[in-house]
Amino acid sequence: MDWLIAPFEVAFVQRALWGGLLVSCVCALAGTWVVVRGMAFLGDAMAHGMLPGVAVAALLGGNLLVGAAVSCAAMAFGVSVLGRSKRFATDTAIGLLFVGMLAAGVIIVSRSQSFAVDLTGFLFGDVLAVRSRDLWYLVAALAVAVVVAVLGHRAFLALSFDPRKAHTLGLRPKLAHAALIGLVTLAIVASFHVVGTLLVFGLLIAPPAAAMYWSDRIPVIMAVAALIGGLSTVGGLVISWHAGTAAGATIAAVAVGAFFLSAIVSALRERVGRVGAASVAALAAVPLVGCGTAEEPAVVEETPHGFVAGAEEMSEAQTRLVVVEAGTGAVRVVDLLTEEVTPVELSLEDAAVQPNPTGSPTDGAPALRLADDGRFAYLSSGDRIHIIDSGAWTVDHGDHRHYYSAPIRSVGAAMVPGDASTSNESGVVAAYGDSALAAVVLESGATVVFDRVALGEGVVPEPRRIDGIAVPYGERLIVADGTGRVDVRDRDGAPGQVQSETCPVPQGQAVTRRGVVFGCADGALVVGQREGEFVTEKIPYPTPTADRATAFTHRPGSTTLTALAGRDAVWSVDIRTKNWTHTPLADAVAANTAGEGSALLALTRDGVLHGIDPVSGTRTAQVDLLTGPVEGRPVIQVDPNRAYLNDSRARTVHEIAYNDNLRTAREFPLDIEPSLLVETGL
To answer: Cβ neighbours of residue 500 under 8 Å, at least 6 residues apart?
Structure first.
């Protein structure tokens, strides 16, 4: 039975199961009356009428459930008011509101270029993204639905069969009708996050319709509908897990299949009678009995694929921001999904981390520097590196990915091994990691290598030093040293295969899908792997230049890199096409891009954020983002959906929808100045 149990060993599938079971119960209470009263068209209209509210909530950075509830309530009110007209039938009013609300939602969506992912989730749901907080919402929705169903049972029953008699009995049919619409609204709003609006009727209508083949009593129909919905949830999740299908759609399909199965069994029962049906059921149970009684060999439990001790596997990337204040050394971790801000306290042994109010090494104390490897953030000052576990990371297996969440914590600190000419040259400038190693590149051009497995266990091992820029790639270390030599070494750092191309004066590096990129005095050097062999390729500058790229920024994995070209221009290099682009921009202080045709993002010293076409170099958008001249070390972090920019003066991190005319999607106010910023979880 491992095939049945294995999917539910993963935390996010367990939450999906509980979410589906709760939604099944809510839909059973409301869906029974939808089926009995023939309100399917009304339910469909109300489900699609949520789109304007969800769209507005998404654009304003609000709660989607609140937006859905407001829009659905407006739809219900409109149906109730227009339904009283004697000039046309109720379904005409429903149809008009249906089209009007849907059109309004589409218009709102069309005004935003970055809404496609949210719209997909709205239409088709994402049951595997259900969070613990969503489960509490569903529990509250179920409690309200139970109260409404119990208190309104007599009125709903009378309204379904004889509204005039309901009025005679003093059951207030108009109020009952409004309460019933409210119950349906509650079920739709609670369900759309799980299966989406296009599939909500799989749980709202199919289980109650199937249950009506087994009973004529309303309470029994509701109970059987909840049972069928629950079994559909379990079956849909198991099928989705093994077949790789969309979970919400699979649950809905299983629910609809249960309806047709009930219809077929009911037809057979009418033909062969109850005795025959019982015989069929007995025969169907024989294989199950055999499975239960046959002696089976002992099953050895294996570690589930992707299991990580102490971590919880999630259904989506758990992106987080690690923010540090240069003046105090205070650390905050911002969860971009929940918006929760977690302070991280440095332990007493890390007191050597010396804050610097201006971030400048000329003030006596060494400046703080911050880098990350996708999970761990490395904060340096002088000859000491402090490691912070952001508790969020992604493991990429090529054809699929695993997303993890773990507690946020301070791991500890380590001294930089070896000697640097000055303490300032021990500051971190970048960090990269794989399953075994974490390589932290220093300003001196050396690299400090940690055992990443030990860091994950909360232990800071003794690091080792490599003279040169070392980057983990393909289960090797790619090293570019001060002599210009580039070689591929084993993970222990022993000298390895020297590459044919050289990299004079290496400064700046990045990891892309096509290999490791080093910034060289004469261009960019790409070290990749082809058919198991490491190869190098130089991408020279268009013309010799003094304003070379010395620090690359890019979306993790992207093949398009950006870098400042002095103070009056920005470089971008496309590793696929092997082209450099030089974009003039006076007083540029930070740049980045999502790549693959996305705009080049650049911040100028006056606080203006620019969107620039990467091909023509023309400005596509600009916004006065920061109040006044830029302070500190501004950073633009980019992920597949948003960009993040630190505003030290306003103590805020801005979330930018870079595909929507640089619209500010959200802002994260902090109690510290976000002088330094990195994003983890990607």
So the answer is: 536
Distance CA 631, CA 326 (A): 12
Q: Which residue has the tokens 């249906």?
A: 98
Reference 314, options 470, 564, 189, 129; nearest CA is: 129
Euclidean distance between CA atoms 630 and 636, whole angstroms: 13
pLDDT for residue 191 is more than 50 = yes
Q: Which two tokens stand for residue 136?
A: 């509490």
Distance of CA 301 to the CA centre of its chain: 31
Q: Which residue has the tokens 């060289």?
A: 520
Contact between residue 160 and residue 147 where contact means Cβ atoms under 8 Å apart: no
| Contacts of range 600-605, beta carbons closer than 8 Å, 24 or more positions apart | 600/562, 600/570, 600/572, 601/636, 601/638, 601/643, 601/656, 601/658, 601/662, 602/570, 603/630, 603/634, 603/636, 603/645, 604/630, 605/629, 605/630
Q: Collapsing DSSP states into helix, strand and coil, what is residue 648?
A: coil
Express each pLDDT in 236-287 by its tens digit.
Answer: 888 988 887 877 778 888 888 898 998 898 888 777 754 454 454 444 444 4
Beta 428-433 vs 409-415: how paired, if at all?
unpaired
Please give the average per-residue pLDDT across 491-507, as a whole number: 87
- Cβ atoms 32, 218 nearer than 8 A: yes
DSSP SS3 for 189: helix
The C-alpha atoms of residue 677 and residue 334 are separated, in whole angstroms, by 10
**Does residue 403 contact residue 315 with C-beta atoms inside 8 Å?**
yes
pLDDT at residue number 653: 96
CA 610 to chain centre: 26
pLDDT at 155: 79
d(CA 496, CA 82): 79
Mean pLDDT value of segment 643-655: 94
- Statement: residue 529 has pLDDT above 80: yes
**Torsion-angle region of residue 639: left (phi > 0), alpha (psi -120 to 50) or beta?**
beta
- What is the rounded distance in angstroms from the CA atom of residue 306 to the CA atom of residue 277? 45
Closest CA to 373 of 120, 58, 145, 680: 680
State the Cα–Cα distance between residues 609 and 599, nearest whole angstrom: 12
Cα Rg, the chain, nearest whole Å:
30
Evaluate whether 681 touches 333 at the Cβ level (below 8 Å): no
pTM: predicted TM-score of the whole model, two decimal places:
0.67
- Please state, for a pLDDT cut of 90, what percent of the chain lies above it: 37
Contacts of 225 (CB under 8 A, 6+ apart): 24, 27, 28, 31, 32, 207, 208, 210, 211
Q: Is 664 left (phi over 0), alpha (psi -120 to 50) or beta?
A: beta
3-state secondary structure of 155: helix
Residue (of 41, 17, 54) closest to 189 by Cα position: 54
Residue 509 has pLDDT above 80, yes or no: yes
Q: How far apart are CA 301 and CA 317, in angstroms?
A: 28
Query: Element (H or E) spanning 557, and its range?
Result: none
Q: Is the pLDDT of residue 3 over 70?
A: yes
- Which carries the bigger pLDDT value, residue 63 or residue 113? 63
pLDDT interval class at 295 (50, 70, 90): very low
Instruction: Output the CA angle 610-616-621, nearest 5 degrees.
Output: 25
Q: Name the pairing type of β-strands 608-612 and 619-624.
A: antiparallel
CA–CA gap between residue 319 and residue 404 (Å, rounded): 10
pLDDT at position 455:
95
At 104 the three-state DSSP class reads: helix
Contact 590, 602 (CB under 8 A): yes
